[in-house]
Write a structure and sequence with these properties.
seven-stranded mixed sheet, 52% helix, 14% strand, binds uridine-5'-diphosphate, binds magnesium ion
Length: 320
């Protein structure tokens, strides 16, 4: 069975539409499915809509948050509540085309475990938005060691991958990057971001900036190391300017006492920056330890208990 997780925040006009359209496409393709709607503390009638849909449609499971916890939390809650052999996550504003779900499902049947939806085009965006998104993805791609410039939250994960994700002990998750970080047999499917038909994007510019900073910090410690690097640059500068002021001092062209001030300022400045960087480095290590991410993940195991069935299971295409 395929579980489709749909986080919803103030989407009262989209819920029924999304349920109907995704259901139609999946049923049309002969896929056994369930829809898991997660109401992320919406301020409008989203929950009532979800309830109504769930009452009429046996395929629908509904979860409701006590308040708005954000899309990341909603996706994880949906995955935790899903019971399928594979789970997909998609926006419930139908910007992620349901037809792509079928394509992803076929890849899953071929044995892929993480199928990423990759944006062919980013839809309509302002130049500012495009540029800052570009910068954000460059940093995060470096940190996660995968190209994320066209990544989206539209993904289909095998049960193994879902369980691995749910077992992550960290609080600050970034689904898009984590689902690459966990590894597994990965494939990707391109899709075109559709226009939003109802309602509006719940992301303001400021919330996007906050989102970017939060995720960079939760995925990489590079910003901390910048201090050390800056410290070394200042030290280099200190040596050059220091030499220059010493030359001036000895050639008698310097203002009385000024050389000492310049030297002290430069040396103390760079030493402080470098020490901050070193402290930052230790904090980075502590941070990584506190996050308690597993050191590795095992995607499958063959041992005494399952040698026969494992061999057989790999021959057969998996059933949904
Ligand atoms: N969403 C959510 N919680 C939030 C914000 C958004 O669950 O706090 C959901 C929203 O209902 C939608 C998806 O996340 O299904 C994507 O949101 P949106 O369309 O606003 O973002 P965009 O498509 O502009 O990136
Ligand atoms: Mg959207």
């Amino acid at each position: 069975m395929l579980s489709v997780v749909l986080p919803a925040y103030n989407e009262e006009r989209m819920v029924a539409k999304a349920a109907a359209e995704v259901g139609r496409v999946l049923a049309g393709a002969g896929i056994n499915y369930e829809l898991v709607f997660v109401n992320d503390g919406s301020k409008d009638g989203t929950w009532e809509e979800i309830e109504k849909t769930a009452r009429h449609d046996p395929h629908v499971t509904a979860l409701c948050f006590s308040r708005n916890f954000g899309k990341e939390a909603a996706m994880l809650a949906g995955l935790a509540g899903a019971s399928g052999d594979c789970c997909a996550v998609m926006d419930c504003d139908l910007q992620h085309p349901p037809e792509t779900l079928v394509e992803m499902y076929r890849l899953w049947e071929q044995g892929y475990e993480v199928i990423e939806g990759v944006k062919r085009s980013r839809g309509k965006e302002s130049i500012m938005h495009r540029a800052s998104a570009g910068l954000f993805y460059r940093i995060i791609s470096k940190a996660a060691k995968v190209d994320m410039s066209r990544a989206s939250d539209f993904k289909l994960l095998d049960r193994r991958a879902v369980d691995a994700l749910l077992a992550m002990p960290e609080r600050n998750t970034f689904f898009r990057a984590l689902s690459s970080w966990i590894g597994f047999r990965t494939a990707s499917v391109e899709f075109d971001v559709r226009e939003r038909t109802e309602g509006e994007s719940s992301w303001s510019t400021w919330s996007l900036v906050q989102y970017a900073v939060k995720n960079i910090v939760s995925f990489s410690t590079v910003p901390m190391q910048c201090v050390t690097v800056a410290g070394f640059f200042v030290l280099l500068l200190a040596v050059v300017i220091g030499l220059q002021s010493l030359v001036k001092y000895f050639s008698g062209r310097a203002v009385e006492g000024f050389t000492t001030v310049i030297l002290l300022l430069l040396i103390i400045g760079s030493v402080i920056m470098i020490s901050l960087g070193i402290i930052g480095y230790y904090i980075a290590k502590i941070y990584e330890e506190v996050k308690g991410r597993p050191r590795y993940l095992i995607s499958r195991r063959i041992d005494r208990s399952n040698r026969e069935e494992a061999g057989a299971a790999d021959q057969l295409p998996r059933q949904g």
